[in-house]
Amino acid sequence: MRTDPKVSIKGLYKIFGPDPESVLPAVLGGMNKPDLLERHGHVLGLQDINVEMQTGEITVIMGLSGSGKSTLIRHLNRLIDPTAGEVLVDGEDVLGYSEDRLRRFRQETMSMVFQKFALLPHRTVLQNAGMARRVRGEDDAAASREGRKWLTRVGLSGYEDAYPHQLSGGMQQRVGIARALASDSPIMLMDEAFSALDPLIRTDMQDLLLELQTELHKTIVFITHDLDEALKLADHLVILKDGYVVQQGEPQQILLHPNDPYIEDFVSDINRARVLRVRSVMQPVASGNGHDFAGIVEANDTLEKLISLSGGDTTKAYRVQKSGEDVGVLDMKDLVRALVPAAPAQTGAVR
């Protein structure tokens, strides 16, 4: 059962230009991005964004370059103010915060992990990790204690006295994550946090984030242009194009049921067997009557694992369990059908 969202974005618009408010009525009336630029010399950055982010979940916002994803995340901590709309955190209007309240909000409620690490080169790894604590006025002992704790958790114990230039890119990003975690903020913003890393290191960082999230249950907003990364990390996936939301929802369902040709193109080259989970293609438990099961599988197993387990035999069926309880039935014929991309729904996204 869903609770009230931790973060709620409602009717958010961002127009860049000398007089955004003067052209807002035209945008609200349906003027698109190219026409706004041609007729009024303004750029439509975000258009009617409505997204709810739940406590303890990873919301991934993805899209190609220029889609508005980095612009959107910067509205959450008001590095950018919208032209119109609302940003609510725990039901409070962030846009109404005073300067002092906004400063405390950034120090205590939201931490941020940047693509380019943003470490202070003249500070040690330990000093960088505890920086958020120092900025909000805590003493060196408390900052160092928390910094050391989280450096150990991200695998950097022993590097406390090193400087950023002495670390690899992956290690520097671990310091950035430790710094965000040491702030003890309930919300983490991660803007293309792993994009600058080599593929193998990037995979390690994704695994580390998921491992930490299993324990910490942070509310994480993660920006990426990589669909494989989005599908791996997201509890809730939001796909942007030209500043508007094309589709959002549970990642597995978006992959199985794209509602727009743009999304269909996006997911067409995905290795579906590696990404899709048994829970997404299984049938209800009752449908297993009369089946002779070949074994038991887990709801979160990938279809790739099931193909290997079955030896590709489409006559087999498996009982599906989660935490030891029967939750469904997987017929290998259903698995094979799921490997064929579905055509998009006839109704496209609202622009």
Overall, the morphology is globular
**Radius of gyration, Cα only, in angstroms?**
23 Å
Count of DSSP E strands? 13
The secondary-structure element order is: EHHEEHEEHEHHHHEHEHEEHHHHEHEEH
- Oligomerization category of the chains in this entry: single chain
**Average pLDDT metric:** 90
Strand content: 15-25%
Describe what this molecule looks like in 3D:
This protein has 351 residues and is α/β, with parallel strands linked by helices. Helix content is 38%, strand content 22%. The strands form three sheets. Strands 6-7-8-3-9-10 form a six-stranded mixed β-sheet, sandwiched between helices. A four-stranded antiparallel β-sheet has the order 2-1-4-5, with helices on both faces. It has a three-stranded mixed β-sheet with strand order 11-12-13. 36% of the residues are buried.
Quick recap:
With about 350 residues, the protein is of the alpha/beta class.
Would you spell out the secondary-structure blueprint of this structure?
Layout: E1 7-16, H1 20-28, H2 33-40, E2 43-53, E3 58-62, H3 69-76, E4 84-89, E5 92-93, H4 99-108, E6 110-113, H5 125-129, H6 131-135, H7 140-153, H8 169-182, E7 187-191, H9 199-216, E8 219-224, H10 227-233, E9 236-241, E10 244-249, H11 251-256, H12 261-267, H13 272-275, H14 278-281, E11 296-298, H15 303-310, E12 317-322, E13 325-331, H16 332-338
Parallel strand pairs: 3-8, 3-9, 6-7, 7-8, 11-12
Antiparallel strand pairs: 1-2, 1-4, 4-5, 9-10, 12-13
Helix pairs in contact: 7-8
Give the key terms.
single chain, 351 residues, alpha/beta, 4-stranded antiparallel beta sheet, 16 helices, 13 strands, 38% helix, disordered C terminus
